[in-house]
Design goal:
Lyase 2-enoyl-coa Hydratase, Chain  A, domain 2, 6-stranded mixed β-sheet, 15% strand, alpha/beta, 3-stranded mixed β-sheet, 2 domains, single chain, 2-enoyl-CoA Hydratase, Chain A, domain 1
Amino acid sequence: MNAASQTPSGADIGETLVERDGPVTILKLNYPKRRNALSLPLRASLIDALTAALADDTCRVIVLTGEGGHFCSGGDISSFEGITPAAGRSRMRRAHGLIRLITQSDKPVIAAVEGHAAGAGMCIAADCDIVVSAADAKFSCTFNKIGLLPDLGGLWSIPLRVGIGQAKKLMFTGRMIDGNQALALGLADEVCESGKALETAVAMGHEIARVSPISNGMVKAALSQAPLSLEDVLATEVNGQGLLYGTEDFQEGKKAFFEKRPPQFKGN
């Protein structure tokens, strides 16, 4: 079979590369010719990779990043040709499975952003529990420049991070901001020098992996329901703390505290 007749695959159409660093699973968007735009194959492979990482008991934290110097340039506009309203709705419903994996799972997901995080790329970063950004990264919410509205959870996650007024400004103008501006707004949670986002995110992942995964999962579940009323929060505390008192992790944490040693949590 000659090269011209081969079926495109991998980086030619978009794929997710999976790496491990101890308890941290690293997922890399890899579609370099389009700055890691979310092609349908890339999106499908990311869903598969996330599903596998979430099912792996040895994985405590997931880091999501992009290969080739960019996080994600948004949707793959070349795949929008001829799309109908019905097909668009179906496409969105399938994509929402990805966002639910990120936001509703019990494992922390850290975005490590270098280069462009545009459109859907900015939304996915904002959906993550923690955003580590290079100082010169470029965030932009540019959906209205092609006549669409923010998707992939961005209408929920971006206002939660930056407030309604700033979210409107970012979404109405499509203005590009760098990592330091994103930190000031709350869109990013930590900023590092260029080229160090993945290293910084993985180090943070190791820090998180040292504490109880059960309690972290409950914290994530509670905060993903924000904003809650005070009474809802107090009820969550009663139910969650009651369950945690019965875990082996709690017994180990308490024992380690009195023995003045680092706890060895096992997630049970």
